Each structure stands twice: as C-alpha cells, then as structure tokens.
Amino acid sequence: MRIFALALLCALTITPAAAKDTGLIFVSNEKTNNIIVIDPNSYKVVNDIKVGRRPRDMHFNADHTKLYVACGDDDVIAILDVATLKVTGKLKTGPSPEAFAMDEAQRRIYVSQEESSSLAIIDMDRGGIVKEVPTGGEPEGVLASEDGKTIYVSSEAGDLVHEVDAASGAIKRDVVVGLRPRRFAATPDGKDLWVTSELSGAAYIVDRAKFVVTGNVPFLPPGMRKSDVTPVGIAMTKDGKTAYVALGHAAHVAVVDVAARKVLGYILVGKRAWGITLSRDEKTLYVANGLGDDVSIIDAASRKAKISIPVGRVPYGIAVDE
Amino acid sequence: MSSARVTSLLRLLRGRLGRSGARLALAIAALIALASVPPALAQTTPDKQPEQHVKIAFVSIDNDPRYEPLRAYERIVLKTREHPLTGAEVGIDEANALKRVLNADFTLDRIVAKSPADVAPAVLAALDAGTHFFLIDAPTEAYKPLAAAVHGRDALLFNVSEPDDSLRREVCAAEFVHVFPSRAQLMDGLVQYFISRKWRDLLILEGPQPADATMTGAFERSAQKFGARIVAHQHFKPGSDPREREANDPSLLSAVNRDFDAVFVADDTFDFARTVPYHLVRPRPVIGSIDLEPVAWHWTWERNGGPQVNSRFDRKSGGRRMEGPDWAAWMAVKMIVQSVMRTHSAEFAKQRAFILGDSDFDGAKGLAMSVRPWDHQLRQGILLAAPYEVVATAPIEGFFHRVNQLDTLGDDEPESKCHLNK
Fold it and tell me: What mean pLDDT is reported for chain A?
C-alpha cells in the first residue's frame, strides 16, 4: 500500500498538468518575512505566506510546481508548493543566503552567502552544502551558464565577478568591474555578461570568452545626478535586444538597447527600485521598490507604470507563475 | 593546490566563520585540496605583473586621552573607547582574500609612539624602511610636526580618528588624507537634519573643556551656514554646588526666554551630558554629545552593505561594536587596496595619484566617496545616530550642491582655507 502510494505520488509529480500557469505574482519581503501573492488580473493581494525570515531571491522549478526562496536569516532555501502555497521543505545553506541559480539537470543550487563571503553548491534533493567556494566580500548576483558548466558570481565589496567551474567549485577567472557589482543578465548569444554596478551608476559588460570588461552603460535619468543612480536589478528580453535596469535611489527603470549599448529611455517607478522581473510575454515589467514597500507594474510597450501595489516591508524580488 | 594556498584559505575561512566554523573550514579546505585543480588556476588573472607586497603602518600613541574610558565613578564605565586597529585589520583580511586578483599582499604593522611628539620620528623611520602608507591614530598635536617631517616625501598618511578642523585648514598638508570626517562635516550633517524638520531654534549648552569650545564653534558655524537660530548660548559647569546651580542644573540652564526646538550639548567628558535628557525645563530632544550624535559610523547601520561590514568587524573584534574611527581605518585600507587593484601598478606615485584623483570609493554609506582636492578630506555621508537607530543620513534630501551633494557637508572649495590643488 505504501509503495503504491509512493508510486502514485511520483506519477502525480511528473504529470505536466501540475503546471497551471496561474499568473500569480510572488513578492518576497525581507523585513516582514513573507511572500505576498498578487492576482494578475485584479492586482489584489490574494495571499500572504510566512515563508521564513528575510526571504530574498526566488526561482521556480522548470514545471512551476515549486518556488524556491532564499531565507537570509534562517540560513535555508525554503521550498514552497505552488498549488497549496505551503512550505513543503527546506534546504540548509550557510550563513545569510541571498541570490541563487538552479540547475535542475545536475540537481544543484548555487547560492551566494553574504555573511561568509562564499558561494555554496547545494544538493537540491538531499540539501546540504556539497562544496563551498570562497569569494570576494559580500557575494550577491549568481548566474549559471546555459550549459550549467560555469557559474558567475559578483562580489559587492570586492568589485569583482568570479567565473566558477560548476563541477569542481574552483574559481577559474576573476574580472574587476565597477564599484559594488550586484546582479547579472546574459545575452542570449552567450557572448556577454551584463552586471550592474551600484556605486558606479552603470552596467558593466563582460566578454565571457576573454573575461574582460568591454564597455559600460552609464545611467542618468534627466534632472538626476550621477550619485543618485544606484542600479541593482536587471532583466533582459529573450531576443537579447532590450535590457531593463532598476536604478535604485534614482526611482527609475532604464530601458537599454543592448546591441547599441545605449539608453532608450527611463520609466518612473518607486523608492529604491531594486528587484526587476519581466513577464513571459515580455509585455509587463514588475519592479520591487525596496524602500517604498510596494511594487510597480509597468506596461513595457508604452513604458508607463500601470499601478503600484503595497506589499510587505522591503520587497526584494518578484517571481511570476506563468 | 599548494599547501600555502590551503593554509591561507583556512585562515580566511576561520577568520570569517569564527572558531565554530573552523572545523567546517578544514573540511572545505580538504575538499578543495582534493578536487583536481586545472593548472590555469595557479595563475588566474590575464595580467602578469609581479607580485607586490604592500606595507601599511598603523600609528597610535601610548595613553592617548581620547581613548580613556568615560566614567561616572571609578567603577562605573559609561563608554569604553578603543583604538581602531581592528577596523584596519578587517580591511587587511578583505584585501588578502583578494590576493589572487590583486597579485599583491598587504601587511599591517603597528607603531606605538610614546607621545604626540614621537609620532613624526616614528613615521620617518618606517618611511625610510620602505613603508609608504600610514594610518594615523593620534591627537591633533601630533599633526603639525608630522606634516613638516613628511613634507615632499613619498608617503600618504590617513587620518583615521581626529575630526579637528584645524588639520584641514591650518595644517593643510598634501601628504595627509583625512578619512575621518571633519568636525565641520559632522556638525553640518546634524544641522541639516534640524533644518529639514523645521526645528530651527536651538539652545547651546557648552562645557568648560577646550574640546567643548571647538565643538560648539563648529556647531555655531553650521547653524549660521544653514540658517538655524541659536536662541541662547549657555556655559555649564559640572558639579552640585547649590551656589552655582545656575550653571550646573540643566533645568535652570534651559530656562531661557525664548522657546527652542532642541538642546545642543557639547561635553567632552560626557558626565554632564548624560544628565541633560529629561532634566530640561521644557520637553525637548538633546543632540550633540548625547542622544542624537553625528558620527562616521554606527553599529545599527542597515543600508549599503552596513550589516556585513558590522558583522565582519564584530567577528574580528570579538563582539565590539564598530565606531567611527574603526570605519575610517577600514576605509583607509580599502582605499589603498583599490589603488593597487585599479592602477595595476606597484608604483607608489601611481597609487597616490589614484587615491588623490577623481576616484570613487565605496564606503558602505551610500553615495560614492572621493578625496577633496583642496584639503584632502574624504567626502562622505554622515550618520545621525540615536542610541539604537540611525535616524537619518546627511546630506539630507533637499540640500543641493552645484557639483556634489556631499560637498554640502564641511569646507567647500570656495570657503576652504586650504588649497592643495592650487
């Protein structure tokens, strides 16, 4: 009977029907220790999930049955069941996990741990640290290459991007970028890595083959000063033509022509715009305003904010179930 | 992987994780040592400059009165005060964690002079022995002879603990970099906040110490600069003599004709300042030496990577709370490290040019910092700290400057008495 139940459970988890495309918008809030769930049509808050202390970066698994959430003050990655909106498991990490990348094929999670200045490689099934890679101070952004063989991690205090061999956990190369590098986007052609530099007010572009900086795109919304501009979150369209960068203190999102490395325009959002996510159809942008305790929902075509929705305190990131 | 690399990694991890993490560190080091390491790892960065060794000296004096504990009675210590050596050590640990990238290693030597007059000869001896970077943790008196001694030499001396404005105005030496904020910067930050809240009427209570007069002078200049009104300026005399109650009772001292929004207390000994809150004739907040203090750093600072800096310091110091001078010592080391990293050079002249040039530095206080060319003061934000909260950071929103908002704090170029760039 037990074996049968287990088999049934396995059968259930692999059915594609599990992915429901609910369109629900999940917002992690660092200071209220919760995830606010917003209905995509009514823009009403429909759920408030106590997920753990200081939830930050979030990623869905491939079939969107689970949402993984780094809980910075619990030293775990919590696993949220998307159908029931309940926490069903926790993966132990080192101190203060912040951002992570998942490789479901290899069953690995790569997570930056800002208190221990390291990148931990976590076993997705059993939990626990398989390897720990010492990084420069205050690691933040984590990105896995398309083939899963290389992990990129930024060090905020070291002004570096590390290139890490995923299998051995060895740092292969380092590149010095601007001040306080935060988060990444990769161009779909596999050539370039964009990294936001919060205190340089720019995105730095790293050639992934040579691992050198080939340029940077400074941001300056009209009427602002360089010192007001503190870029953090970045999202890129799937065709690699457009990037959206949340400019923190400057309360704007920059729209960037990736090929030309030029800013096309700026969109007004809320206070300390940090996290940014693009909808699957790329028509909508979601921005977490870290010190405004709200999110801005933006129509990408008209470059206008449609609505702002109050969430928890210090929203970090946004994930959309679609 | 070489055993030296494993050892240094161990040391790094042990430092970061504390004693409890040592076993974990050992396990990780063993894992990394076991993992096959491609040869490319030994030499990672594409540039091939020779390894350089950067020496930094931390210079303090014996029995510096600025670090005497503040006491109520002999056995009641109100505040302990520590030399900021640990701040520098945290910076060195961070630098040595980046050894692979920097192709350089950093050492910190401590020099303890017997008196302020002995600082200059001690610095000269180390300079002759090949040290170019100095963190100076000495009182004001040490600076004038020091400036004369190092004049024109290949040295950069980072002031990490002395706010005295005269060092930036009259002493005005090209070899100094004032990482610690000037008193003018601190007081400007404090006054900006009160102006922004429209609490413009202020009462001054000034103590009898020379340091109290200096602090009050700076506060008055800031009040004038931003348009605050001093409704009365009282001189207090600590004690309990009833014949002098007009000068030692905060209630009577604050019984002035005009109302005020806050009381500024300048009390270097702190013993009087602590009796002021809740003893005024009116229910008003107290600022200056107590309750709301302008500082270079605070242990509750939550933004811009502050918690991480604080927790690294906490681990290194064994639980001490990081203060302004600790931050300045950490920051000075960070500036030196940046000069090595960004110039890709082992030449002191290039490193100095980087630090004194237009370079931006990340001091974990928000706005990017840089060295003012006219008086070599580091531009920086000022934290306005209550005991358990950073109430605000200056420059306060709304105070604008034609070039850099940070230059609304302290001596701006036109009014500076020091013109090192001319």
Answer: 93
Q: Which of B40, B45, B367 sits opposite A174 (nearest CB)?
A: B45
Which superfamily does CATH assign the domain made up of B185-295 to?
Response regulator (3.40.50.2300)
Q: Which residues of B touch A170 (CB under 8 A)?
A: 32, 35, 37-38, 41
The answer to whether A308 and A297 have CB atoms below 8 angstroms apart is yes
Chain B residues within an 8 Å CB radius of A30: none
DSSP H stretches of helix in B59-130: 85-97, 99-102, 119-128
Calculate helix-pair angle for B306-317, B324-343, nearest 10 degrees. 110
- Which residues of chain B have a CB within 8 Å of the CB of A117? 16, 97
* Res. B183: pLDDT tops 70: yes
Predicted confidence (pLDDT) per residue in A49-102, tens digit: 999 999 999 999 999 999 999 999 999 999 999 999 999 999 999 999 999 999
- Which pLDDT score is estimated for A132? 95
Domain with CATH 3.40.50.2300 in chain B: 52-181+301-380, 185-295
Q: Look at residue A120 and tell me whether its pLDDT is greater than 80.
A: yes
| Residue B135 token pair | 């963190």
- pLDDT score at B26: 45
What is the C-alpha end-to-end distance of chain B, expressed in Å?
A: 52
Q: Cβ contacts (< 8 Å) between B38 and chain A: which residues?
A: 165, 168, 170, 172
B101/A212 CB distance under 8 A: no
Using a CB-CB cut-off of 8 Å, the residues of chain A touching B404 are: 225, 227
Select from B6, B14, B16 the residue whose CB has the most chain A CBs within 10 Å, as the one to mutate to test that interface. B16
Alpha carbons B176 and B172: distance in angstroms, whole number = 8
> For residue B20, what pLDDT is reported?
46
Looking at B27-31, B179-183, B318-322, which range is the least confident one?
B27-31
What is B52-181+301-380's CATH topology?
Answer: Rossmann fold (3.40.50)
> Half-sphere exposure (CA, 13 Å, Cβ side) for B200?
9
Give the pLDDT confidence of A154-201 residue by residue, as tens digits: 999 999 999 999 999 999 999 999 999 999 999 999 999 999 999 999
pLDDT for the residue numbered A179? 95
User: Among B334, B362, B406, which would you mutate to test the A interface (most chain A Cβ atoms within 10 Å of its Cβ)?
Assistant: B362
Taking 70 as the threshold, does the pLDDT of residue B173 lie above it?
A: yes
Q: DSSP secondary structure string, B354-416?
A: HHHTT--B--SSSS-B-B-TTT-BBP--EEEEETTEEEEEESPTT---SS-GGGGSS--GGG-
Chain B residues bordering chain A (beta-carbon distance below 8 Å): 9, 12-13, 16-17, 21, 28, 31-32, 35-38, 40-41, 44-46, 94, 97-98, 100-101, 305, 308, 311-312, 338, 341-342, 360-362, 364, 366-368, 404-406
The predicted-structure confidence for B34-72, as pLDDT tens digits, reads as follows 433 333 333 344 444 448 999 999 999 999 999 999 988
A68 and A74 in contact (C-beta within 8 Å)? no
Per-residue confidence (pLDDT) for residue A8, from 0 to 100: 44
Cβ neighbour number for residue A21 with a 10 Å cutoff: 10
- Give how far the C-alpha of residue B258 lies from the chain's centroid of Cα atoms, to the nearest Å: 37
CA proximity to B354, closest of B367, B368, B343? B343
Smallest Cβ–Cβ distance between B308 and the set A114, A131, A169 belongs to A114
Task: Measure CB to CB from residue A134 to each of B45, B97, B312 and give the nearest one.
Answer: B97
Give Dmax over CA atoms of chain A in angstroms: 70
* Nearest beta carbon to residue A169 from set B16, B35, B45: B35
Torsion sign across C-alpha atoms A119, A160, B370, B197: negative
Q: What is the pLDDT of residues B101-133, one digit of tens each?
A: 888 999 999 999 999 999 999 999 999 999 999
